[in-house]
Amino acid sequence: MEESGTTTPLAGAVQGLTSELVSALRSGGRFRLAGTITGPDGPAAGNGLALAAVRVVGADAVLPGVLRRTPLEPDDLAVFSKAVHAYPPPADASPTSVWSHWAMRRTLAGLNTSLDGAPDHDGTEPRAAWLEDAPWQLLTHQLAVLAPLAVPGVDCAVARVARARPVDVARGFVRAVRRRDWLQAAGAGRWLVMLDGVPQTLGLETGLEFVAQMGGEDPRVVLQVEAAQLIRAGVPG
Asked: Phi/psi at 173 (nearest 5 deg)?
């Protein structure tokens, strides 16, 4: 799913969810997904909207629990599971949409089995051939979109492509900063903290702080920077 750039109920719900995630990452407190998002007319109106917002945010909707390896409450797990199953990618979906959904399914499987007790994810990966020979500009853009895959312990085709091209991702980070594309820079920075071979001259830590300062009005940017900094620090409890 793509989030509209205009102010819509969905955009507002995504912003609200993302802001709550940022607060949870900063505080270290337990994040409760269920009930976080409500619609403009109250919780009942927000039910479908909440699922759509979770799908837009993707696997990062449960990022505090994933990073700190804390179990989700049953109602939180139910919300995440419903979002996973409510919005499967269509047959003509873009590779990033397919991978985003795969990341959610993989995350759900890692947090728990499906609610009926059967495995929810067979581990089969989508293909990542479109990334392998992509120009570094496109590579960085696509990796930023797929930033929810940048978590410790994840080994998948997208992560392997990123690990093979740290200098290209670093170039993309610098380009995004120069273009003031703070969301892309933040997503690229999240990948970079997990890669070996990143040039020391990049000054990644300072660069991430600058991105957070300049793009701090967008909670999506702050979420990626907070995630990057926690991963870099070893995810303290």
From this structure: -60, -50
